[in-house]
Design a protein that fits this description.
The complex is a heterodimer of chains A (about 475) and B (about 90). Chain A is of the alpha+beta class and about 475 residues long. Chain A folds into two domains: about 15-135, Glutaredoxin (3-Layer(aba) Sandwich); about 160-480, no CATH class. Chain A is about 30% helix and about 20% strand. Chain A contains 15 helices and 22 strands. Chain A has helices at about 35-45, 65-70, 95-105, 130-135, 155-160, 175-180, 205-215, 220-230, 240-245, 260, 275-290, 330, 360-370, 390-400, 400-410, and strands at about 25-30, 50, 60, 75, 80-85, 85-95, 95, 115, 120, 145-150, 190-195, 200-205, 250-255, 315, 340-345, 345-350, 380-385, 415, 440, 450, 460-470, 475-480. In chain A, the strands form seven sheets. Chain A has a five-stranded mixed beta sheet with strand order 3-2-1-5-6, covered by helices on one side. Chain A has a four-stranded mixed beta sheet with strand order 14-13-15-22. Chain A has a four-stranded mixed beta sheet with strand order 16-21-17-20. Chain A is elongated, with a radius of gyration of 30 Å. Helices cover about 25% and strands about 25% of the residues of chain B. Chain B has two helices and four strands; from the N terminus they run ββαβαβ. In chain B, strands 3-2-4 form a three-stranded parallel beta sheet, sandwiched between helices. The termini of chain B are far apart. Classes of the chains: A alpha+beta (about 475), B alpha/beta (about 90). The interface between A and B is medium-sized, with 43 and 19 residues. Strand 10 (about 145-150) of chain A pairs antiparallel with strand 1 (about 1-5) of chain B, so a sheet runs across the interface. Chain A: InterPro entries: Thioredoxin-like_sf. Chain A: This is Thioredoxin.
Chain lengths: ~475, ~90
């Protein structure tokens, strides 16, 4: 398991009216703890007001709900407190004759007890209970509206009924799960990280966490989801239009840096496919935020004619090891942990099992890239070329880096405009007559991205087409992943 | 009792009544908004002809790109200058 960031949001101890402590000596114990059993005669002799965590009948009070223990921040039992004017003024944990005598001002306590015995762990810090306690008593800082599901409601059907899912079941976002999710980041749950279209809603870290829970994310995935959302909601990514368009595209996420491996992302076999939790849920979480927070739902603002299966989730890591290229994000100015967002429209295979030189393979890539969107439409749509390891090896062994490959493809994809005119080659689609007699690049500058991913075997690469590109549409955006 | 947190933006939308439909466009100022999609202008040119023939005063507007929402200033301008607006989508 990767290390998780420790939450900065420690519960504050608050005494509600029901939790007013009596003045004098107060203790919290559990019967399961041998040290607590050991000190029982001392507690009774001192007339301590005792709350027991696991047995309602042992002492006068019980704390079976663990509210008092939680609010007092009890970590060890027994804990002995001195209370004056309703406020705690001293505390000792475990059994220590010296410390107990100092706290109580009495001498000769537990004469037949050993000098010292450590206590046991409090049930209120049990890892299996702490989330529920924090959710219930913690002043958790969660501000999302709480909905009580009716007894007879199936919790999964309830999520569908409320319109919160993408068509697949989601994990019900209970406060406990959301708190656990928020431990994946050090950012304040109430920090606004993006204005999410189409409704232009201010989206907090907490709302992202709620949707990340629903998507099935682990807490360590959350920083990547946050970075992806930040990138998606930039002006240049044009998420509103991307969502609303009749075109196929949706946000695709490419992850770079050590975080990809640390959180278990897949950059290898079936990298663009199913079966990896991090890949699947991070991409899904972003789409659920767009749906639920932004209000972007298919058939409403989302007018896609056909859409594509990647609109459920489309997220993978670059295979940095053995790559002929520098990490994509580093090449785009963001070294280390980063996401690159692209308006991906689907996957088009590139087959070349015979090329063994970079020149030949580049020509294959160019031929396949030319049809991106339409073979007669230049500079209309960006693309991501996903180069597999077996194809990548050809470039690595020849010493071609990304810039070299992109430059070669630029040369190969400089097209005579006469071939692209409306009506040319018997096709009405194309560019206006006024552009006749010149040469045009298939891709605008910066409109062709190259990524290395995939399993060891297979002389196949892939093209992920984009959407309307550049200033008039969407430009790829790279952002650092912060914890 | 199971509790879940609301994953939505928790927006409360204000409902506004539609303005009554004008009985006639004669003498009214009608804005035509071109969203910059291919051949949207063909459609709007024809509309302008028809509206002008019906006695409407036509003003033409254009979004910089169909991929983004209309700039605030443009929306304000249309609101100030027009009584009726027709937005032409393409595809």
């Amino acid at each position: 398991m990767p290390p998780l960031a420790v939450s900065r949001h420690r519960p504050t101890v608050r005494y509600g009216p029901a939790m007013q402590l009596p003045d004098g000596l107060v203790a919290v114990v559990k019967r399961e703890c041998p040290t607590c059993v050991l000190v029982e005669p001392v507690l009774r002799e001192l007339g301590v007001a005792v709350w027991c965590q696991d047995d309602a009948d042992w002492f006068e009070h019980d704390d079976l709900e663990l509210e008092l223990s939680y609010r007092l921040g009890i970590e060890t039992v027994p804990t002995l407190l001195r209370v004056e004017g309703g406020e705690e003024t001293a505390r000792v944990v475990g059994w220590s004759r010296e410390q107990w005598e100092e706290l109580t001002g009495r001498t000769g306590l537990g004469a037949d007890l050993p000098e010292h015995r450590p206590g046991c762990g409090s049930l209120s810090v049990d890892p299996f209970r702490i989330d529920a306690l924090e959710a219930r008593y913690g002043g958790s800082g969660l501000s999302s509206r709480r909905l009580e599901l009716a007894e007879l409601e199936d919790e999964h059907e309830a999520m569908f009924d409320r319109g919160w899912t993408d068509g697949l079941p989601v994990v019900p976002p209970t406060p406990e799960r959301v708190l656990r999710m928020l431990r994946g980041t050090t950012r304040d749950p109430q920090e606004i990280i993006a204005i999410v279209p189409p409704d232009l809603v201010e989206c907090t870290v907490e709302k992202v966490a709620v949707n990340a829970v629903m998507a099935g994310c682990l807490p360590e995935h959350l920083p990547v989801v946050l970075a992806a959302l930040e990138a998606a909601c930039t002006e240049e990514f044009a998420l509103h239009g991307l969502l609303a368009t009749t075109y196929f595209s949706g946000p695709m996420i490419v992850v770079n840096g050590p975080i990809a491996r640390r959180i278990g992302m897949n950059s290898g076999v079936n990298a663009l496919g199913q079966g990896n939790r991090a890949n699947a849920t991070i991409g899904r979480a972003l789409q659920l935020v767009v749906r639920n927070v932004g209000g972007g739902r298919p058939g409403e603002i989302d007018r896609a004619t056909l859409g594509n299966p990647g609109k459920l989730t489309f997220c993978f890591a670059e295979r940095e090891e053995g790559s002929p290229f520098a990490p994509l994000a580093a090449d785009r100015g963001v070294p280390g942990d980063a996401v690159t967002l692209f308006a991906g429209s689907g996957v088009q295979p590139v087959v070349d099992q015979l090329s063994r030189t970079p020149e030949s393979l580049a020509r294959t890539f160019a031929a396949c890239l030319r049809v991106n969107g339409h073979p007669k439409l230049p500079m209309a749509f960006d693309a991501v070329l996903v180069v597999s390891p077996e194809h990548g090896r050809v470039f690595r062994e020849a010493g071609w880096d990304r810039a070299r490959l992109v430059a070669e493809l630029g040369t190969l994809l400089t097209l005579p405009s006469d071939e692209l005119l409306r009506g040319a080659d018997g096709m009405a689609e194309g560019i206006p007559e006024r552009l006749a007699g010149i040469e045009l690049p298939k891709f605008r500058p910066g409109g062709l991205l190259v990524v290395h991913a995939g399993g060891d075997a297979g002389l196949f690469s892939a093209i992920v087409g984009g959407w309307v590109s550049g200033d008039t549409g969407s430009a790829p955006v790279t952002r650092e992943v912060r914890t | 009792m199971r509790t879940v947190l609301d994953p939505t933006g928790e927006q409360r939308t204000t409902e506004r009544e539609l303005l009554p439909r004008p009985a006639s466009l004669r003498g009214r100022t009608v804005g035509l908004l071109d969203i910059s999609k291919p051949r949207g202008d063909v459609f709007l040119d024809r509309l302008e002809e028809l509206l002008t023939a019906d006695g409407a005063v036509v003003r033409r507007y254009r979004k910089p790109t169909f991929t983004r929402t209309a700039p605030v200033d443009l929306r304000h301008e249309i609101g100030e200058q027009c009584e009726v607006v027709i937005e032409a989508l393409a595809d």
